[in-house]
Amino acid sequence: MKTHISIFITIVFLLLAGIFTYEIVSVVKIKGGTVAEKDRMTKDFIKDFNNEIAKLEYYPNKDDIIIYIRKRHKNIPDKTAKAIAKNILLASEKYKIDFGLILGVIEVESGFNPSAKSSAGAIGLMQVMPSVWCKPFGIKDYKDFYGIATNIDCGTRVLKKYICRENGNVVSALKAYNGTASNKFSDKVLIATAKFITSVRILRDDKPGKSCNNR
User: Which of 23, 93, 107, 109 is catalytic?
Assistant: First the structure.
């Protein structure tokens, strides 16, 4: 009987994961849709997903993030993955931004590599621009942006700034964050977020405590 219940739960998770993945991919692949339409649908997806989590009393935690990072990026050391997961949750709580969105930005920007540096000079996990943000954030040495805690905190702070500036429009905020008029970056981030969400639903069937809040 117990085995049958486990199988049933697994099937339900797989079905829900497929539905959620389809929804998020549909959101970011709309052809000819306005930014406002895309953002509205993205918010609807996040709202629906959080409602499902609430029903199941399931709350992704730090271990879920670590497992996701290690499975998708095997070259990232355990110590680094743990530090990234810890600081994603801290920044999420501090700036009131969904941790899945922060994780998506990090995966797209740097592939979870704290030493990443772009040709434009952006550095670290969230590819923060020292030339732009050192002075406003009171950072004296640009190398501090290579630190996991500093980079995630500052990167999330920048993301929050743009979300507020764009009146909560996530797609527009991601465009501003990346400094582009294209939807390519925002699409990648939302898809990365969806992959994390579905991986959690498929791989785990227990119900850990409320170690973090979903927004």
Answer: 109
Report the C-alpha gap between 100 and 196 in whole angstroms: 7
CATH architecture of 2-203: Orthogonal Bundle (1.10)
The packing angle between helices 99-110 and 78-95, to 10°, is 130
> What does pTM read for this prediction?
0.70
How far is residue 191's CA from residue 108's CA, in Å, rounded to a whole number? 10
Contact between 149 and 122 under an 8 Å Cβ cutoff? The reply is no
**10-residue block means of pLDDT along the chain (215 residues)?**
46 45 44 54 57 50 90 92 95 90 95 92 90 79 86 93 91 91 89 82 47 36
Residue 109 annotated as catalytic: yes
| Sign of the Cα pseudo-torsion (157, 47, 215, 191, in order) | negative
